[in-house]
Design goal:
The complex is a heterodimer.
Chain A lengths: L12 H4 L1 H20 L2 H149 L3 H27 L12 E2 H9 L8 E4 L5 E2 L1 H20 L7 E8 L2 E7 L7 H12 L14 H12 L2 E6 L5 E8 L3 E2 L11 H4 L12 H5 L16 H14 L10 H4 L1 H6 L27 H4 L21 H14 L11 H17 L4 H11 L11 H4 L4 H6 L1
Parallel strand pairs in A: 2-4
Antiparallel strand pairs in A: 1-3, 3-8, 4-5, 5-7, 6-7
Helix pairs in contact in A: 2-3, 3-4, 4-8, 5-6, 6-8, 7-8, 11-16, 15-17
Chain B lengths: L12 H4 L17 E4 L9 H9 L4 E2 H8 L3 H13 L3 E4 L4 H4 L1 H13 L1
Antiparallel strand pairs in B: 1-2, 1-3
The chains are: A alpha+beta, B mainly alpha.
């Protein structure tokens, strides 16, 4: 590439002109001298030739001058370029050295920085790890402490609940036993003042028993005692009423014949008692609480209506939730209001359905549906008196009917079983017969403590201490003849047949004297031992009734009462065919004697 | 402490009588008063009343009714008082001559001993 010419790089006209001009002048002078010395004749050609030569010389001198000048300029530029190149080279070397130096410096710095960072990182990591470990240890310790506390709390809770359940169970047992005691005393004491006091105590004890039942239900224990037979609706309602303080204000309107199965009766009774208690407590002290019982296809509806406070929507929803039994646990308890929670528990356990609604009486109405599956369809109907004898082929028993003769003066032989003369016996016999149906193994006696206490024993897993060792005679003392009229006790174990060798057989829980009496009576019968399939119900009830009457009427003659009565009452009727329903039933005593 | 028997009833006695433990002062009932029903039981009646009315279709003594009901005599008397007040039963005392004569009693005693 050709570098552009600088102005100084081309020979200027001024520097170029002097030499050719000088040459031209000299040549002109030389030509002019030569021409002047030459003759005239030759002058012209010479002048022309010399002139041409001079011109050529001038041109050559001009060209040479210009070349010299150009060469000089070019050499000068070359020198300048060479110098520039050297300078540039020097610069480059210098810069490269600086670069190297800088790079080394940066590298060192980088290394140093990296090391510093690494150290810092390691330090930080160690510190974090230490902190983490510490935190983890702390949290682990905390967790362990919390877990321990939770475990301890759980343990304490379980222990407390178990202790509560146990205590409640004992209280229930005490209350139940006390109620039985009181009942026995009520039977024993004729004095009305004493009876009034006993009834008062009875009422108080029943209320205490309900509270113990509530605690037991909340503690998850089994509720109350378990009844061995279905309990009629009337008794359920009365049992519930008997456990609240304001039972006098409760009016029952019921014609319901259904009965609640024995295992659920206590729960239903308890739930009803709580509902009644609520209704009685939250209505004015003078207002009555009305209870209606209605049978529906789904079961039996018990409606409790008070005329007290009207519950608001919120209250009613809360109450419905409480009694629905959906809220598990004891967290929702408020301390003073246990009743609804108890109802909820019981409702869930037995499938009861409880609902609230405003009552037409101005207060609150509670509906409780007792489901069909804990109902016993129909209580054995008490037959009409006239139709009782044919309708119930019951009991044709060879058992002497004491007192039948006394009552009517009629020969026992002239009537089949004496039933028409004592039509109302069927009324009681149904109770006992019902008992036997429920407890085929039972001996039909109140004093057969072995069988009688089975359900009770099942019900109470708690130990009774010494109470379990108390002989049953204490409770069934009236069974001996010198006590007050207690028909069902008196009738105990009459079915005992003497052993073949004639020795009296004493049954558990019964005095030997009674067994002896049995034997004497059996002899008086002059009859072979009856087959065991014969029902005991009717004769037992009759014997009980008569002996109690005798004792009451002619107290001092009671020791004579039994023998003559038995003599006169020897039935002449042949032994009727045993009822197939009774033969099919296992009867341990019958098997032992027949 | 005694244990509850198998055939106990959940009814407490005070619930049968609405809490009363005493019969009215003018109550005509004693142990041997004879009671006769004046009407048939009606549905919805207390079951004890039904039992009494059924049992008393022929004259029957108070103590017999008590045994029938398995209730203390005092309670039975209160129930009977209620029925009497409602006019459902009537009461009369047995003739006393038959019981009072000591000769008859003695003869009966001798006769019984000879059996």
């Amino acid at each position: 590439m050709t570098a552009p010419l600088q102005p100084g790089e081309r020979p200027s006209l001024r520097s170029l002109a002097p030499v050719p001009l000088l040459t031209a002048v000299l040549a002109a002078l030389a030509v002019a001298g030569a021409v002047a010395r030459t003759p005239q004749a030759q002058r012209l050609p010479l002048a022309l030739g010399a002139g041409a030569g001079a011109l050529l010389l001038c041109a050559a001198v001009a060209v040479a001058t210009r070349s010299v000048l150009t060469a000089r300029i070019t050499r000068r530029r070359l020198d300048a370029v060479t110098a520039d190149t050297g300078r540039l080279l020097q610069d480059r070397i210098r810069q490269s050295a600086e670069f190297d130096q800088e790079r080394v410096r940066l590298t060192e710095e980088l290394t140093r920085e990296r090391a510093r960072h690494a150290a810092e990182l390691a330090q930080e990591r160690a510190r974090s790890a230490a902190a983490l470990g510490e935190e983890r240890a702390r949290q682990a310790a905390e967790h362990a402490a919390v877990a321990e506390r939770a475990r301890q709390a759980e343990q304490e809770r379980a222990a407390a609940i178990a202790a509560t359940a146990n205590a409640a169970g004992r209280m229930q047992a005490l209350a139940t036993g006390m109620l039985a005691d009181l009942r026995a005393m009520e039977e024993r004491h004729e004095d009305e003042d004493v009876l009034a006091d006993l009834l008062h105590l009875d009422h108080r004890t029943a209320q205490a028993g309900r509270i113990a039942d509530s605690v037991a239900v909340l503690a998850g224990a089994r509720s109350g005692r378990r009844w061995a037979r279905p309990i009629g609706m009337e008794s359920i309602l009365r049992g519930a009423m008997g456990r609240i303080s304001g039972y006098r204000r409760v009016r029952v309107h019921s014609a319901c014949e259904a009965a609640v199965a024995g295992h659920a009766a206590e729960g239903v009774m308890h739930a009803l008692a709580e509902l009644l208690d609520n209704a009685a407590n939250f209505s004015p002290p003078t207002a009555e609480v009305h209870v209606y019982v209605e049978e529906v296809p789904a079961g039996v509806i018990v409606s409790v209506e008070d005329s007290g406070l009207v519950m608001g929507d919120v209250q009613m929803r809360r109450a419905e939730r409480a009694v629905s039994g959906d809220v598990g646990g004891l967290g929702g308890l408020t301390g003073t209001r246990l009743g609804l929670a108890v109802v909820g528990r019981l409702a869930r356990k037995y499938g009861l359905k409880v609902s609230y609604r405003p009552s037409a009486r101005g207060g609150t109405g509670v509906l409780m549906l007792v489901p069909q599956d804990i109902l016993v369809p129909e209580q054995p109907v008490e037959p009409a008196p006239a139709a009782s004898a044919p309708a119930l082929p019951e009991p044709p028993s060879g058992r002497p009917v004491e007192g039948a003769e006394w009552s009517t003066g009629e020969q026992p032989a002239s009537r089949p079983q004496g039933a028409p003369h004592w039509p109302w016996f069927e009324g009681t016999s149904h109770d006992t017969a019902h008992d036997d149906e429920q407890w085929p193994g039972g001996d039909g006696s109140g004093s057969g403590s072995g069988t009688a206490l089975v359900p009770y024993g099942e019900e109470w897993p708690v130990s009774y201490g010494s109470s379990s060792l108390v002989p049953a005679e204490t409770h069934h003392a009236p069974a001996t003849p010198d006590h007050g009229p207690l028909p069902r006790h008196d009738s105990s174990g009459r079915d005992t047949d003497p052993l073949p060798d004639g020795l009296p057989q004493r049954r558990r829980g019964r005095a030997l004297a009674e067994a002896e009496q049995e034997r004497a009576r059996a002899r008086a019968d002059e009859e072979p031992p009856r087959p065991a399939v014969v029902s005991l119900d009717d004769p037992l009830a009759r014997a009980a009734r008569f002996s109690s009457f005798q004792r009451a009427v002619r107290g001092s003659l009671s020791d004579l009462g039994s023998a003559p009565a038995e003599d006169t009452a020897t039935p002449a009727t042949p032994e009727p065919a045993p009822d197939p329903t009774r033969t099919s039933r296992p009867h341990p005593e019958g098997n032992a004697t027949s | 402490m005694s244990r509850p028997g198998r055939d106990d009833s959940p009814d407490r006695l005070y619930t049968l009588t609405q809490g009363r433990a005493r019969s009215a002062p003018d109550s005509p009932f004693d142990l041997v008063t004879l009671v006769v029903a004046e009407c048939d039981p009606v549905p919805g009646m207390q079951s004890e009343h039904v039992t009494i009315l059924r049992a008393a279709q022929r004259p029957v003594a108070v103590v017999e009714l008590a045994a029938e009901l398995r209730l203390p005599v005092g309670i039975t008397k209160i129930l009977l008082s209620d029925l009497l007040a409602a006019g459902r039963v009537s009461a009369r005392h047995p003739r006393k001559a038959a019981v009072i004569d000591p000769d008859v009693l003695e003869q009966v005693l001798v006769g019984l001993r000879n059996l």
